[in-house]
Amino acid sequence: MKKIIFFLILISYFGFGQKQPSIQVIGRAVHIDKTPMFKGSVTLSSAYSSLPSETFTLSQMKEKYDAALKSNGISLAQLKEDKFAYESLGYDKEGTIYEFETSTLEDFRKFMKSKSFGVQRLQFDQVITLDEEEIASLSKKAFENAKKKAEAMTKNIELDLGKVISIDDNRNYLDEEIIRGLYYDKPLGHFQYEVVVTFALKND
């Protein structure tokens, strides 16, 4: 029995000892969506004010907000109201949430710059989508980027890149909505696609 146990231990030891060395890198490729959708949401409430709630009723705040929107070329009728979403925030004062969605940057700018008493920004986002051809192109570029990184990392060691062991994009975004915030240091429609590639390493 002891001989069998010893034999199994030896098999296990040599199995791990012969494991092929590998290197794992992240490859990246940038995509710019030329026609992103824009989504925004704001709260309309006196919850952010120290004034008594009776100073302005919700109806009065809606009228003022509608006037502010109209002065910029849109109206409250173009926004979608979501009272339940506001209730889920747990504020004591009465209020509501308005959402706006458009494919036109100019209209979204009008929405963003419409200010009124009780209006607070929640989210200003862009929605990006990728089709099959775009996914294929990004995958290729990201893989090439990963390979270039791996080659640079192994340049000064006595090992060369071997075959690809695995490629993982972590999440397949095909035909999904990719929601990204609007950032001053990133162009509109900017999305960074990533793949994780594992290469085998071999001796010269």
How would you describe what is shown here?
This is DUF541 domain-containing protein. It comes from Flagellimonas maritima. The strands form 2 sheets. The chain has a 5-stranded antiparallel beta sheet. It has a 3-stranded antiparallel beta sheet with strand order 1-8-6. The two termini are 43 Å apart. The radius of gyration is 28 Å and the shape is elongated. The protein is an alpha+beta fold and 204 residues long. It contains 5 helices and 8 strands; from the N terminus they run αββαβαβαβαβββ. The chain has helices at 2-17, 58-71, 83-87, 105-112, 132-153; strands spanning 22-32, 37-45, 80-81, 95-102, 119-128, 159-168, 178-181, 190-203. The chain folds into 2 domains: 20-34 and 129-203, 2-Layer Sandwich (Translation Initiation Factor IF3); 37-128.
What's the quick description here?
Helices cover 32% and strands 33% of the residues. The protein is an alpha+beta fold.
The fraction of residues in strands falls at 25-35%
Low-pLDDT ranges: 1-16
Number of domains: 2
**Spatial strand order of the main sheet:** 3-4-2-5-7
Q: Using DSSP, what is the number of strands?
A: 8
| Helix count, DSSP H or I runs of 4 or more residues | 5
Content-based structural category: alpha+beta
Largest sheet, described in full? 5 strands, antiparallel
- The overall pLDDT average reads 87
Q: H/E element string?
A: HEEHEHEHEHEEE
**Radius of gyration in whole Å, from Cα?**
28 Å
